[in-house]
């Protein structure tokens, strides 16, 4: 079953004070089946993050389709569904992890992960237990669990961001440089969770600065320079993040 298909995708950005429109990416097409992991590789500025943000509907494409086989609405074009439908998909089906943490102020680390589980229908007892397991897995100091994330280091914020997204076990998970500021041990923790989610059927689209991290993890690789989709064995050939 095809979970995600991007066809003829193009995106431009307007620089209003210069009254200019600049092309960002064009002619992007690839698809992946349910449970597959595709890695997107290419030079900085090639538009990798733009693809992920467009799937998540932070951006709207100027041309093309982004077809997603949702549990709630069937096959939909993410660039044309209603805001209400997109909010539903973000809440229940599509997760997004970036290098940056944007959360409600004055909400503790523990509350953020617990609330993510409560949104999915978990009971308070189960949510509290699973939240603690997730925080412990990503080695966030228990002394920080009841602190506000604005006091965290960059690496701690990133690990919390990953915990919040992965604990919901989304049907589709978008990973935008999720290991960029992590040490080797933390990267292994992320890889372990990705492998577990993949085994449970989650479909993933990921961008990684560390190409070696992707080896043995991705099923397919899309190269932004050549506009080609290949099997995972060729990962890293001519690619640079």
Automatic annotation (TrEMBL):
One of its GO terms (molecular function) is lyase activity. Residues 4-241 form the ABC transporter domain. Coiled coil: none annotated. The gene is phnL. Keywords: ATP-binding, Cell membrane, Lyase, Membrane, Nucleotide-binding, Translocase, Transport. Gene3D superfamilies: P-loop containing nucleotide triphosphate hydrolases. The keyword Signal does not apply. This is Phosphonate C-P lyase system protein PhnL. Belongs to the ABC transporter superfamily. It is found in: Cell membrane. Its main location: membrane. SMART domains: AAA (SM00382). It is a peripheral membrane protein.
């Amino acid at each position: 079953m095809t979970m995600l298909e991007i066809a003829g995708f193009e995106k431009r950005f307007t620089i209003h004070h210069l009254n200019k429109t600049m092309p960002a990416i064009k002619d992007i097409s690839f698809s992946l089946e349910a449970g597959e992991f595709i890695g997107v590789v290419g030079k900085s500025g090639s538009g990798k993050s733009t693809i992920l943000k467009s799937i998540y509907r932070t951006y709207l494409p100027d041309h093309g389709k982004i077809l997603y086989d949702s549990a709630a609405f069937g096959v939909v074009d993410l660039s044309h569904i209603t805001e209400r439908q997109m909010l539903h998909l973000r809440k229940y089906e599509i997760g997004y992890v970036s290098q940056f943490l944007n959360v409600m102020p004055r909400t503790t680390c523990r509350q953020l992960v617990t609330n993510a589980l409560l949104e999915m229908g978990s009971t308070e007892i189960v949510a509290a237990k699973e939240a603690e397991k997730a925080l412990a897995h990503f080695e966030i100091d228990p002394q920080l669990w009841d602190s506000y994330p604005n006091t965290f280091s960059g690496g701690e914020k990133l690990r919390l961001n990953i915990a919040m997204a992965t604990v919901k076990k989304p049907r589709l998970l978008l990973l935008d440089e999720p290991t960029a500021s992590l040490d080797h041990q933390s990267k292994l923790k992320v890889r372990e969770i990705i492998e577990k989610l993949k085994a449970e059927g989650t479909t993933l689209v990921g961008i990684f600065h560390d190409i070696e991290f992707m080896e043995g993890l991705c099923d397919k690789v899309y190269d932004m320079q050549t506009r080609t989709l290949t099997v995972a064995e060729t990962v890293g050939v001519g690619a640079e993040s």
